[in-house]
């Protein structure tokens, strides 16, 4: 990976669910742009170690060989694990500038029988976990010295960035996945409410809404040519995305290039949110 920019040089980031998929790509991209990253995972220690190796190699390649990246195990569906994760990361880094709430899961069952235990687990990981991580990051952002983000004496705030990994299902219903739909719908107001509450403190809160991305979450169809073709036929741009294409949007929102953007969800979805059925007129 050769990055053209060093927009995150000197920043410290925690990315939840970074052992695989979109989270891993975010960790790699942030490292390429100069950040030091904490790679959170829940159960896949081996994958997290692979990500760490890859991130270290990328940092070295980009001239940031001294970055002390780390792995931190925590199930973000468990409040006590989140508290321990922040303790670990803040003790190791001494500061945090960027939180990415990326960890996410889904399960499929018709809504009339969707198990309560599944509902509670999906909400705990995707939404409550994002809130609890945001709270811990906010407390740190609000209590650290001013000028921490490198804006210098010109700002009276320490600043900070929170990014949420949402989904096109923030606004498009996903029948059979009621807990996932609710979690991503909730993420919109998590993003917007925190953005408004802390805008005057120099803290920006935004989200990225991916469409269909080539990750393990889509293992059911991504490696089956027929099923993949069927899925991609519904995407206006005609293809699933690579995780790196999501990471690029996260890097932009994390950087000072997005210094005047808060409370927004950027849908990186190949046009999925454009009501593709209306491409050819059928309504008038
Ligand atoms: P993925 O390939 O399945 O990877 C999920 C990641 O989340 C893994 O690193 C996993 O860690 C971690 N994770 C799962 N449960 C966790 C928990 N309780 N605590 C901490 N980490 C946990 O998924 P992905 O496709 O990259 O998805 C990442 C995010 O993008 C999710 O929020 C998802 O909703 C969103 N998204 C994905 C797509 C898509 O098409 N892929 C589309 C829209 C939105 P372990 O390896 O330890 O299990």
UniProtKB/TrEMBL annotation:
Pfam family, one: adh_short_C2
Classification via InterPro entries: NAD(P)-bd_dom_sf (IPR036291), Sc_DH/Rdtase_CS (IPR020904), SDR_fam (IPR002347)
Domain of life: Bacteria
Annotated family: Belongs to the short-chain dehydrogenases/reductases (SDR) family.
Protein name (database record): SDR family oxidoreductase
Annotated organism of origin: Dongia sedimenti
């Amino acid at each position: 990976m050769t990055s053209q920019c060093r927009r995150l040089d000197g920043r410290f980031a925690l990315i939840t669910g970074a052992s695989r998929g979109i989270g891993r790509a975010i960790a790699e991209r942030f490292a390429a742009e100069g950040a030091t990253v904490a790679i959170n995972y829940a159960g896949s220690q081996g994958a997290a170690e692979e990500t760490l190796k890859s991130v270290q190699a990328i940092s070295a390649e980009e001239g940031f060989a001294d970055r002390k990246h780390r792995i931190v195990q925590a199930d973000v569906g468990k409040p006590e694990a989140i508290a321990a994760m922040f303790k670990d990361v803040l003790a190791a880094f001494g500061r945090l500038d960027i939180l990415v709430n990326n960890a996410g899961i889904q399960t499929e069952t018709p809504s009339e029988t969707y198990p309560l235990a599944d509902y509670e687990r999906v909400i705990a990981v995707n939404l409550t976990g994002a809130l609890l991580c945001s709270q811990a990051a906010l407390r740190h952002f609000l209590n650290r010295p001013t000028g921490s983000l490198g804006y210098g004496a010109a700002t009276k705030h320490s600043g900070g960035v929170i990014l949420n990994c949402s989904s096109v299902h923030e606004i498009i219903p996903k029948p059979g996945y009621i807990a996932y739909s609710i979690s991503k719908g909730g993420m919109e107001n998590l993003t917007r409410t925190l953005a408004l509450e802390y805008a005057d403190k120099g803290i920006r809160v935004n989200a990225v809404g991916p469409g269909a991305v080539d990750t393990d979450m889509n293992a059911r169809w991504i490696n089956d040519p027929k099923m993949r073709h069927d899925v991609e036929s519904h995407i206006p741009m005609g293809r699933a995305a690579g995780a790196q294409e999501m990471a690029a949007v996260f890097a932009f929102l994390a950087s000072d290039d997005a210094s005047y953007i808060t409370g927004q969800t950027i849908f990186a979805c190949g046009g999925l949110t454009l009501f593709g059925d209306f491409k050819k007129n059928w309504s008038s």
